DNA sequence: AACTCCTGCAACCGCCTCTGC
DNA sequence: CGCAGAGGCGGTTGCAGGAGT
């Protein structure tokens, strides 16, 4: 059994109070982010470091854009989800002022339902009511077997196969270009390279996927 | 008005990855 | 190279508030 991230006794849990928020803000303004484990004690907070980090990143950071998602943000999330799967931090990285938690929540509460209501399987972005690009029963079976053998949880490869399989429909919005220059951190670049390898993309040059997106 | 059900979101948990030694 | 500690991430939970009956 793994050791807990911090001593569980003597730490507050649940919703943050205004005083706690203020302490965290004041401390980070004075000392900057980093060393989350020692931060609570230094800031006089009875919280674990992870909790402080989460609170700051998801709620207190000054550059956060709060409120409803714009239509273009929705589009981008759907496109990126088709490309990356549940890589919420990568997706959030493309949406200035949005956090991975926010994007994840928005996906689970709004976008997933929206896609389902349009007859699209939110897991793999395929039309769920009729199989795409299968002209005969045998082709459909073959397709089904292929999906099955890929495994349900392999969302990245699944999303990628969706890119391969689906022929463009008339009202699709297909404009998505991701170039390495937009990956701001080394970590993101590494993660993107990893996901490229997973999906069998060797070159890290511009990706211009063809994804099903309905407007 | 009271109750139940549903929805959205903040926060937690546990695993994975990275980094320094 | 292997280990341990810290940070980061995605999945899940729990609660508050709104909608419906």
Could you explain the architecture of this structure?
This protein is mostly helical. The chain contains nine helices and two strands, in the order H-H-H-H-H-H-E-E-H-H-H. The protein is 50% helix and 2% strand. It has a two-stranded antiparallel ribbon. A hairpin with a 4-residue loop joins strand 1 (120-121) and strand 2 (126-127). The termini are far apart. The structure holds a DNA duplex (21 and 21 nucleotides).
Distance between the termini: 48 Å
Specify the number of helices: 9
Range of helix content: 40-55%
Q: Structural class, judged by helices and strands?
A: mainly alpha
Rg from alpha-carbon coordinates: 21 Å
**Which outline best applies?**
elongated
The largest β sheet comes out as: 2 strands, antiparallel
Give, in spatial order, the strands making up the sheet with the most strands.
1-2
Query: How many strands?
Result: 2
SSE series: HHHHHHEEHHH
Uncertain spans, ≥5 residues at pLDDT below 50? Answer: 130-215
Strand content: under 5%
Mean pLDDT over the residues: 67
Number of domains: 2
């Amino acid at each position: 059994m793994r050791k807990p991230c911090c001593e569980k006794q003597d730490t507050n849990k649940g919703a943050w109070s205004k005083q706690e928020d203020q302490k965290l803000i004041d401390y980070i303004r004075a000392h900057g982010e980093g060393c989350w484990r020692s931060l609570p004690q230094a800031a006089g907070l009875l919280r674990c470091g992870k909790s402080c980090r989460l609170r700051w990143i998801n709620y207190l950071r000054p550059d956060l854009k709060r409120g409803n998602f714009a239509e273009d943000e929705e589009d981008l999330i759907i496109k990126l989800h088709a490309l990356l799967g549940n890589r919420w931090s990568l997706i959030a990285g493309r949406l200035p002022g949005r956090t991975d938690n926010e994007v994840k929540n928005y996906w689970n509460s709004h976008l997933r339902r929206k896609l389902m209501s349009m007859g699209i399987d939110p897991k793999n972005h395929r039309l769920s009511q009729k199989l795409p690009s299968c002209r005969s029963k045998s082709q459909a079976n073959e397709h089904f077997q292929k999906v099955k053998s890929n495994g349900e949880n392999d969302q990245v490869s699944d999303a990628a196969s969706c890119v391969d399989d689906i022929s463009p429909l008339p009202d699709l919005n297909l404009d998505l270009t991701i170039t390495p220059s937009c990956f701001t951190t080394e970590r993101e670049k590494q993660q993107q390279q990893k996901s490229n390898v997973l999906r069998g993309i060797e070159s890290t040059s511009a990706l211009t996927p063809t994804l099903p997106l309905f407007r």
